[in-house]
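Tip: read the tokens left to right.
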């Protein structure tokens, strides 16, 4: 009916992209019906109809990786058991990578696996910030500018600089990285990060030049260092840190939204309100949790994944952490384990909120030290808030 040949076509390709090994597996089949998938999510009790209705296509695809979830209504020798994609995601996450899906109904589906390279060469821009060299991966930069200080204008009480048709918010690099301030200069060197309509400018002390660097992973005992992805050696043998531009962009966004306060710093309030950190890679779920908590008086900060959540915990104080399990870079179990092993944070209450409702997942979460394990179906009533109140009390305290 779709005018396709009886024999399908599968293409497997691998290539180096943005400092990682990317593997693509694409077919020319019928693709994924997003509305059928949405209905299946609700039918299996993995989400309420209210939440599922607002899930984006990309967020719906995340359900494909849940244990036991399948788009097939019958089980055959090859499919229907819901174990294949779950196993793939587990293996990729164990390697520090991530897997995602792209699909066009009637045209086919592509699975993308991004895996880290233990040793790779990356083209970088070397800059000085706080008197020390830092490397920006060139593939992640949108522009490099040198402008007179007078061209930095205040817009909505925040510094911006004009770049083409965009008003780009600007932050001084030494403030974000918490390093010494440079000497005052009339001309500013600005590195522009971001894409689409979300651009951020970071002012550096000095542009040094471009250089190919052999990437060296940081010692795993350091954990995830905020804003830093790896290290390398310059041509003269001096060490240099390679910046994590994705992490840095999120830090710049929070810095700007907070009106120039340090990342993770909260504005003072007259009444002490209990603070909750919500960690979830689904925009929809984060917003549902945030609005529900704020409606009951709690102060909420959100984080995209376990790494961002861990960095937030190290730079601000929270009364509770609410975390998903399946997230890129660091999942919820890893975040919980790191919290329980930290001498300062080990007593911090943690609630796991996950689509996974298997006994083994629930048991693992509780064994790692979670104070409660809830499924995301709890959004349909006050069960979630009652659990939060049972763990840390009312919002004001």
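Filled-in amino acids:
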């Amino acid at each position: 009916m779709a005018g396709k040949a009886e024999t399908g076509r599968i293409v497997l390709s691998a290539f180096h992209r943005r400092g990682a090994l990317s593997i693509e597996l694409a077919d020319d089949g019928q693709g994924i019906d997003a509305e059928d998938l949405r209905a299946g999510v609700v039918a299996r009790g993995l989400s309420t109809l209210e939440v599922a209705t607002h899930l984006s296509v990309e967020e719906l695809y995340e359900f494909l990786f849940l244990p036991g979830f399948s788009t097939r209504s019958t089980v055959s020798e090859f499919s229907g058991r819901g174990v294949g994609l779950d196993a793939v995601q587990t293996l990729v996450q164990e390697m520090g990578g991530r897997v995602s899906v792209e699909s066009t109904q009637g045209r086919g589906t592509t699975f993308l696996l991004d895996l880290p390279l233990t040793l790779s060469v990356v083209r970088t821009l070397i800059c000085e910030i706080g008197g020390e060299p830092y490397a920006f991966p060139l593939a992640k930069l949108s522009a490099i500018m040198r402008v007179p200080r007078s061209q930095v204008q205040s817009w909505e009480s925040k510094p911006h600089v004009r770049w083409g048709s965009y008003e780009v918010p600007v932050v001084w690099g030494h403030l974000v990285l918490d390093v010494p301030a440079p000497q005052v200069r009339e001309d500013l060197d600005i590195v522009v990060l971001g894409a689409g309509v979300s651009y951020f400018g970071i002012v550096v002390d000095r542009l040094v030049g471009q250089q190919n660097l052999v990437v060296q992973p940081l010692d795993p005992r350091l954990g995830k260092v905020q804003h830093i992805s790896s290290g390398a050696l310059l041509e003269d043998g001096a060490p240099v840190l390679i910046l994590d531009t994705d992490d840095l962009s999120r830090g710049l966004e929070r810095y700007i939204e907070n009106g120039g306060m340090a990342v993770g710093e909260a504005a003072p309030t007259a009444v002490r309100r209990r603070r909750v950190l919500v960690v979830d890679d689904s925009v929809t779920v984060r917003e549902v949790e945030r609005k529900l908590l704020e409606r009951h008086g709690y102060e909420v900060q959100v984080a995209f994944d376990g790494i961002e959540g861990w960095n937030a915990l190290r730079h601000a104080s929270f009364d509770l952490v609410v975390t998903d399990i399946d997230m890129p870079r660091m999942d919820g179990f890893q975040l919980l384990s790191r919290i329980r092993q930290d001498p300062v944070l080990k007593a911090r209450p943690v609630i796991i909120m996950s689509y996974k409702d298997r006994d083994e997942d629930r048991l693992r979460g509780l064994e790692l030290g979670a104070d409660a394990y809830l499924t995301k179906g709890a959004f349909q009533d006050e069960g979630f808030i009652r659990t939060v109140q049972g763990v840390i009390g009312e919002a004001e305290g």
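The first strand starts at residue 10 and ends at 17. The first helix runs from residue 34 to 43.
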